[in-house]
Design goal:
The chain is of the alpha/beta class. The protein contains nine helices and nine strands. 32% of the residues lie in helices and 17% in strands. It has a six-stranded parallel β-sheet, with helices on both faces. Strands 5-4-6 form a three-stranded antiparallel β-sheet, with helices on one face. α5 crosses α9. The chain is elongated, with a radius of gyration of 19 Å. The protein binds ligand BV8 and zinc ion. Ligand BV8 binds next to α2 and α9.
Length: 252
Amino acid sequence: MDRLAEAARRVASASRLTVLTGAGVSAASGVPTFRGTGGLWRSYRPEDLATPDAFRRNPRLVWEWYDWRRQVIARCQPNAAHAVLARWSRRPGFTLVTQNVDGLHERAGTRHVIRFHGSIWDLRCAGGCGGAPPTWHDETVPLAVLPPRCPACGGLARPAVVWFGEAIDPAVWEQALASTACDVFLTVGTSAVVYPAAALVHEAKHRGAATVEINLEGTPASDVVDLALQGPAEQLLPAVDRLLQTTPAAGR
Ligand code: BV8
Ligand code: ZN
């Protein structure tokens, strides 16, 4: 059986399907990935800018980067990979955990998205003044004022995302961990180098899930998963989905 058909068979027979996505699922929409070619911005590495230290040293530079990314993402549309996952999200027992902060899964109509690293469209008070809501949504592009301010204390606002060196929201971590108790764990479009997100596929395997990877290139997860498909997510996910229409869902 070819690998695509094998992937479709596994997905069809899963009563609990968990999908983890990374920047690779948004690449076809024009959202720059972090580590692939095309890089992200000028000569900066995400690890240099997406940190509390960089923000403390130069909040304006960090906000110029986020404002630039927000402007790029605002011009992007969800692609076929997002559309397939949005449709699969209607299945009972389906969970999507995304590392992406671009909001394209939500715009594609995906339900119950677990935003593992937060959202570029949400802001929060950098000083944690408690006067404003924990986070607020703001889709203004470009932002009128850089760096944006907290409406309550007038101090600096920050993107409500998880930076390097910051912990994942404990409630989000619990939800993501619980989702690894599944029949099939599918990781799509991630270089599998950022932890603890990259630990989820190991946890799923440890809990007995069948693990599948779809990615343009090999990753450290490729040797761990039961089935690794190399290619663009915007082509492979629709191809698996088409086979699903013709694959009897064993036992479902
Ligand atoms: C934590 C939000 C501890 C912000 C992001 C040394 C020093 C300091 C820290 C560490 C260290 N070593 C390890 C760490 C831990 C660190 C880490 O893992 N670092 C890595 C770089 C080694 N992790 C952390 O710091 C985490 N926190 O550990 O806290 C702690 C614990 C308790 C209490 C206090 C502290 C927090 C990590 C979260 C960082 N935030 N983003 C923002 O986005 O601005 S991470 C960033 O990377 C994005 O979220 C992104 O999603 C994520 C992962 O990247 P990918 O999504 O995989 O994207 P990438 O470009 O890498 O790969 C894309 C893949 O797609 C490629 O493989 C490509 O081939 C493929 N592709 C391309 N096109 C396609 C495709 N595939 C299919 N189809 C296509 N068309
Ligand atoms: Zn405040």
